[in-house]
Each structure stands twice: as C-alpha cells, then as structure tokens.
Amino acid sequence: MEENNFKRLMAEEELNNPPPKEIEENIFRNLHIFELLGETVELYLPSAANLFIDMLGGSVDHAALDSNASHLIGGQSDNDDENKSSSSLNEED
C-alpha cells in the first residue's frame, strides 16, 4: 500500500525542523508542577476534611475509620485496644 503523501511530507518536515529544546523542557517543568500538586492533594486532602469537622465542633471517630479502612489494605486496623479485645474474646471461647 502506498504511503500517504501528507504523512510523508510531515515526516520530512519533522526531520528537517526538530522542535526546540526549550519546548520539551517547558513541558517537563509543567508536568513536574502537576505531579507535585497531585501528591500534595493526595497527602493533605483527607486530613483537611477531618480538620474542618473538628473546627466546626464535630468529632471524627478514628477507631471507626481505622476499622473501615482495614479491609481496603488487607490488614488489621491500627487501633490496639480493638485488637486486644477481639483477641481476648477469642481466648475465652
């Protein structure tokens, strides 16, 4: 099958006139800024919701949050009191 003339012309133009290095550097700088912004949001956004709840006088049940999140990570919750009470109940049986 014959190659499209416009595609061949485009390939020749790209070979003869490569893009300036500044454009590539600018794109990578922008990507780095978006990556940094995404990591910051990922780190602080969940805590920001709890902060606003606390500031408005509400309370956050951290034990319930730990037990709800334990199935997501496939492990036990970080609440030691809950783990001790469940293990002592198992020993009594």
Q: Would you kindly provide a brief summary of this structure?
A:
This protein is mostly helical and 93 residues long. Helix content is 77%, strand content 0%. It contains 4 helices and no strands.
Describe this structure in words.
The protein is mainly alpha-helical and 93 residues long. The chain folds into two domains: 1-59, no CATH class; 61-93, no CATH class. Helix content is 77%, strand content 0%. It contains four helices and no strands. The protein has helices at 5-16, 21-55, 62-73, 80-92. The mean pLDDT is 76.
- The geometry reads as elongated
Oligomer: single chain
Order of helices and strands: HHHH
Question: Tally the helices: what do you get?
Answer: 4
Give the total of domains. 2
- Which strand-content bin applies to the residues? under 5%
End-to-end span in angstroms? 78 Å
- Overall pLDDT level: 76
- The beta-strand count equals 0
Low-confidence stretches at least 5 residues in length (pLDDT < 50)? none
Backbone CA Rg: 28 Å
Specify the structural class: mainly alpha
Helicity level: over 70%
Largest sheet: none
